[in-house]
Hints:
It contains seven helices and nine strands, in the order αβαβαβαβαββαβββα. The chain is α/β, with parallel strands linked by helices.
Amino acid sequence: MQNIWLERTELLIKEKGLEKLQNANLLVIGLGGVGSFAAEFLARAGVGFMTIVDGDTVDITNINRQLPALHSTVGKAKVEIVAERILDINPRLSLTKINEFLNPERMEEIIDSQKFDYILDCIDSVTPKITLIKTAKRKKIKIVSCMGAGGKMDPAKVMVRDISKTYNCYLAKNVRKRLKKDNINKGIRCVFSNEIQDEESLKMTDGTNYKRSFYGTVSFMPAIFGLYAAAEVINHLIKKHD
């Protein structure tokens, strides 16, 4: 066995599966409650190449649900904390860090910069999310897009479906509506929950970072979304070309 720390993984997916993961190149955009866990699950699976993107710093309100968020990391760049952590997990990982909130031009530039096997969309704002999905679709790169984990409490109601099959999620509804204008009605794998959102947990904001409002969130829900996104990608990669 090449890496003793991957012994348990190799027993399950065999050397061939491990090899596919070690040759895979993934792009994770957004390192909040969903993306930080997704990136870690990919690193622990033995993925060989990863690019992580987020321009945000840790805020004290992130501590209830985000992997890089500790009292000791408040004010620090999420991309740096996540990078240090996943390289400690998998030192052989070829990692690219991008500490930016991406505008549409940069998004295209980054997607074109390498040959990515899969994109994980862990952005929680509608406009950048739409841009990413449309760019991935246009360039024929597989993408899994994570919808809203806020206002929800039941882990059993999280699932992965085509975007056309999403329901009871305001973010997914908004995304579907915007994509429809570009004649994109299906063909995007989405992580979502069909639990009805708790309206009493909604809070309005000043609109910073494309967000006009957000729902209350519990510790485990964003992590489950990240887990489902990572599982979707890993299972696709190890089944490819069998």
